Amino acid sequence: MFTDEISFNQRTIARLLDSSPATVNRIVTTKMISATQETDSGKIKKYNLENTRKIAELILKNQRPKINNKINVFYNFKGGTGKTSLCYQVACHLAILGYNVLAIDLDPQGHLSSALRVPEDVNYYTMYDVLINGADINEAILRVFPGLDLVPANISMTRIEVPLSSKTKREEKLKLLLEPLKNKYDFILVDTNPTISTLNLNALVAADRVNVVCETQPFSLSGLRVLVEEMLQFYNEMHVQPNFGIIANKYESKTAISQEVLGALRTEYKDNVMETVVRKCEDINISAKKKIPIFAFANKHSIAIEDIFDLVKEIVKHASLSLSYKKEEIDI
Ligand SMILES: Nc1ncnc2c1ncn2[C@@H]1O[C@H](COP(=O)(O)OP(=O)(O)OP(=O)(O)O)[C@@H](O)[C@H]1O
Ligand SMILES: [Mg+2]
Predict the structure, then answer these.
(1) Non-local CB neighbours of 132 within 8 Å, separated by 6+ positions
(2) Range of the domain at 121
(3) Does residue 291's CB lie within 6 angstroms of at least one atom of ligand 1?
(4) What are the DSSP E strand ranges found in 168-302?
């Protein structure tokens, strides 16, 4: 769905890969990776997504950690905290780095699908067809660009709750479906909808790690307390060991309330708060409107680029940790 409108020069690729322009230049020259766009003078060469992934593969091949916690769920039952925005940026970024990523949209609003340019007027399979009608999940997977696949969502998913709730082992359905896909993907990122629903409980059971996306706004903390309490209680009932991190989003360093909320989060949830704080930045809004990931258009000094880069690194770090416990079999 993306075309060559997303392409990167060598300097940007170096930044994406935490490498140097000289290394990128050496790789493209020695491995004869051709530019997909060139200025008239030939001075600036750009590489499309596919070739950027090839360059990433060559530069990072020995540095990539083994990914143990593949299924990452972006979660909060409060609306508008930034679940979709962060899921979108992280998914695109991981794919550019050369990982094979599957994004799953579990929100009938379909915002992730829309950001990934799924046309609204085409009739695609969604998780409704897979979970309720027994469609093959592979038939619901769309290719967004090399390295990034998507199971889209649309408004038809609003009808999923009643039939899903009446199924046996109703909270385990998604986990069972995703298990075989772990052979094919390095990361499976799930965007949830802002409700307490059986569908979201499926996401929690399937998750190897839950990223709770929380705003640093007044009242965020009280909502978060309820959320964490309910989530831990649910995991306890399901005999599943929780693995979650809280991402503080829309942080405004100049406002006292943001600082206060972040301070309280760190005091209360300690190591469960991710080190990366995503600051409020207009580029995240622009990215959603343009339907282009942030690193493909924003100014190199953009704080959002900086924060998303850090977030991706931290998510990869947590994904590569081996769990010190074994998830027990769920017995309902
Ligand atoms: N760090 C940020 N800086 C500025 N704007 C942001 C940031 N994160 C998210 N936003 C904006 O906040 C709004 C809500 O974000 P988003 O849609 O990602 O939230 P959500 O949690 O997925 O919402 P919903 O619960 O409705 O699914 C969007 O307009 C988005 O562009
Ligand atoms: Mg959303």
Answers:
(1) 160, 163, 164
(2) 71-320
(3) no
(4) 187-191, 209-215, 244-251, 273-279
Q: What is the pLDDT of residues 113-138, one digit of tens each?
A: 999 999 987 889 999 999 999 999 99
Give me the number of domains the chain comprises: 2
**Whole-angstrom distance, CA of residue 269 vs CA of residue 246:** 8
Which atom of ligand 1 is nearest the CA belonging to 213? 21
* Distance in angstroms (rounded) separating the CA atoms of residues 188 and 302: 27
Q: How far is CA 29 from CA 11, 22, 56, 231, 266, in A?
A: 15, 11, 14, 51, 47
Structural contact between residues 124 and 140, judged by C-beta atoms closer than 8 angstroms:
yes
pLDDT in tens, 220-242: 899 999 999 999 999 999 999 99
Residues 189 and 41 in one domain: no
| pTM of the complete model | 0.95
Establish whether residue 194 lines the binding site of ligand 1, counting it when its CB lies within 6 angstroms of any ligand atom: yes
